[in-house]
UniProtKB/TrEMBL annotation:
Family label: Belongs to the HPF/YfiA ribosome-associated protein family. Long HPF subfamily.
Subunit composition and interactions: Interacts with 100S ribosomes.
Keywords from the UniProt entry: Cytoplasm, Translation regulation
Protein's name according to its UniProt entry: Ribosome hibernation promoting factor
GO molecular function: ribosomal small subunit binding
Gene: raiA
Amino acid sequence: MKFIISGKNIDVTPGLRETVEHKLGKLEKYFTSDTEIIVTLSVEKERQKIEVTIPVKGNIIRSEQVSNDMYVSIDLVEEVIERQLRKYKNKLVARHQEGGNFRQEFFESEYATEDDDEVRIVRTKRFGIKPMYPEDACIQMDLLGHDFFVFCNAETDEVNVVYRRKNGTFGLIEPEFQ
C-alpha cells in the first residue's frame, strides 16, 4: 500500500507517520500493493483530527475521526475503516462484483461475512418534489426537523439535497451525471 500523509496545522513527525503506517498497515491484508491510502492529520484548537480516504474501483472508503489525542483518533479511524470494509465486502459478494483493489483472500475469508453488518432498507418513503430555492429547502428542512431535504432546484431544474453539517451550517449536494 502507498501512504500519502499530509498535515494541516501540524508537523507530521516520524513518530506520527510510523504510527499511521503501522495502524493502517493492518489493512494491507485486504488491499493490493498499489492501493493508495490518503491520510490527512489536522489540529483545530483542542481537536486532533485524522481523515483517511481509500479510492477503490468507483467507490471511496472514507473515515474521519476526532479526539483530543491524535493517537486515539488514529486507533478509532482504523476500527471504523475495518467495519466499513466488512460491509463493502458483503455488498461485493452479494452483487458478484469484481473487487478492484482488494486481494482475493479478502473475499475467501470468513472473517467479514457477518449478517449484522448487512445493509437493510427498512422503510421506503415517496413524496412529491416541487421546485424551490436551496435557501427555502433549508427552511423546509428545519420545519420538518430533518437533517437533510430532497428538492427540485428552481434555478437548475435538477434534484438536489440540502443537509445540516456537523458545525450547524448547511450543505448542498448537486449531482453530476456522467
